[in-house]
Amino acid sequence: MAVLAHAEAGEIAARLRTILLPGHQDMRAPESGLLMLRGRIGGDGAPFNLGEATVSRAAVRLASGEVGFGYTLGRDGEKARLIALCDALVQSRDFSATVERDVIGPLREQLMVRRKRAAEETAATKVDFYTMVRGEG
Fold it and tell me: What is the DSSP letter of 59?
């Protein structure tokens, strides 16, 4: 699910187009709402409310009965629906291997390439600081 959450909706949709999808219906149409983000502070980890974030969610049921749920940050309801569809397909015996191979696997590779590139760009700006110690005698 983390791979799908980090992918763009268009990337997920393009990958799903390569699969002959089974019949499915929306159990919960995509909707957006707010979610309270909590953090912890101090030595004892006392919780505090950091702020709110917009979240979209959806639920999809396959004709064979599997139910998938999708959540994503932001107001992209279509992305939440596509994530829910993938979740339901992964639970299906007939489609789990295909979805892993044709959708999630390639998206995971793209995500790893992006993360590696970002890490390389960050590493290129790294500055090593050192301290000169002057001693007497």
Answer: E
